[in-house]
Amino acid sequence: MLPMKAGLPARALRIVPYLRPDEVQRLCEGCRGRQRDRDALLILVLFQTGLRISEALGLTVGHLSRQPGALEIVGKGGKPRLVACPAALTHRLKAFAFDRGLGPGDRIFSVGRKRAWQMIRAAAAQAGLGKRVHPHLLRHSDAIERLRQTGNPRALQLHLGHASPLMTMRYLSTLTAEEALRINQAVRFED
């Protein structure tokens, strides 16, 4: 049983580690070797969509054309969900697939989990990031960035595919008072 504080498990109150967007950019720039474009694209997919590594590695070309601005994926537990995917990223994924002659059923990233971990760690070392960088850290980073920009935990919960709101609420600990004020100032009332 997990210790509780104010009705929440202690892990829900811990600050979630993450990378800032500039650190993700440095991580992409840290990719080296023949497959640096693929590796940087995988990093961007993880960061800009919040997919789990298994979900990102399972992406096929067919996932890109079903609904503009979104990916229809089968997530954890076999549950289907829609995940926001920026148009520029979708375009890059389609160009990558086209350049490699991939068909609708072909996986975009033909690497395994172990190789993905190795690639991300190597890029982090090359970029000089002083943090323990791993694929799931990019999911956390996406979640925190979305929460900072929208202030909407329910939308984030659906985007991430969390069954429990408690899983999503962990990210609230990263918001500063200034960010919360900015989000609240964006609310418009009719005069």
List the domain count as a whole number: 1
Helix content: 40-55%
Average pLDDT across residues? 88
CATH class value: Mainly Alpha
Verbal overview:
The chain has 191 residues and is mainly alpha-helical. Helix content is 51%, strand content 7%. It has helices at residues 10-13, 21-29, 36-49, 53-57, 87-99, 113-127, 135-150, 153-160, 165-169, 177-185, and strands spanning 4-5, 8-9, 70-74, 80-84. The strands form two sheets. Strands 1-2 form a two-stranded antiparallel ribbon. A two-stranded antiparallel sheet has the order 3-4. A hairpin with a 5-residue loop joins strand 3 and strand 4 (80-84). The longest helix has 16 residues, at 135-150.
Keywords:
191 residues, mainly alpha, two-stranded antiparallel ribbon, disordered N terminus
SSE blueprint and pairings:
Elements: E1 4-5, E2 8-9, H1 10-13, H2 21-29, H3 36-49, H4 53-57, E3 70-74, E4 80-84, H5 87-99, H6 113-127, H7 135-150, H8 153-160, H9 165-169, H10 177-185
Antiparallel strand pairs: 1-2, 3-4
Helix pairs in contact: 2-3, 2-6, 3-5, 3-7
Quick take:
With 191 residues, this protein is mainly alpha-helical. It has helices spanning 10-13, 21-29, 36-49, 53-57, 87-99, 113-127, 135-150, 153-160, 165-169, 177-185; strands spanning 4-5, 8-9, 70-74, 80-84.
